Amino acid sequence: DQQVKQNSPSLSVQEGRISILNCDYTNSMFDYFLWYKKYPAEGPTFLISISSIKDKNEDGRFTVFLNKSAKHLSLHIVPSQPGDSAVYFCAAPESSGNTGKLIFGQGTTLQVKP
Amino acid sequence: DAGVIQSPRHEVTEMGQEVTLRCKPISGHDYLFWYRQTMMRGLELLIYFNNNVPIDDSGMPEDRFSAKMPNASFSTLKIQPSEPRDSAVYFCASSLRGGLAGVRAKTQYFGPGTRLLVL
Fold this sequence. Notes:
Largest sheet of chain B: 7 strands, mixed
Strand content of chain B: over 45%
Oligomer: heterodimer
Structural class of chain A: mainly beta
Number of helices of chain B: 0
Distance between the termini of chain A: 38 Å
Distance between the termini of chain B: 36 Å
Largest sheet of chain A: 6 strands, mixed
Shape of chain A: globular
Shape of chain B: globular
Helix content of chain B: under 10%
């Protein structure tokens, strides 16, 4: 049972335009969500997060939106830059117990064309 | 802080050989995670530790895989014997989940990974 899903394996956008990466989840008990970015030959790095008590969190060019009723979150990058080309993972802390374990989606590869 | 340190960064070995991957977590972090990334399966959690104690090893693919954390600053992931299907990138991550960590507690910090190729 995949509790966190990223249904789009890849996305290509033009530099300067908006990139929208989507993530769906099945467990309504998730109370926090994170986005990670991964460049080739590097480990994933934390990008931005959102608590379930909010519906939006913004950090510079990156904004995460949360729609709890739809169990959906999205990451918006505006404007997109070639350096944003990477794999993006959404994740949520395992809700059962206080384990510290994150449930990751499969990732979406973003390509920003100059 | 230097972040999570992994060694080696690259490992090429022959089938049947023993492989040992090493990880030094961020100082003060009390959780340590081992992941494997492949094209087919994405990012898989293999095992994780809390205060040096293994909590969940249900992701370890088979008995050929073992992990230890002898102290708070060091962990190993061992594959013996290795097989070509073990070829992947292995990541170590750590996090802090102590009482005052707050929202930072939910964030894991990843090392650069070890790229393993078993011939």
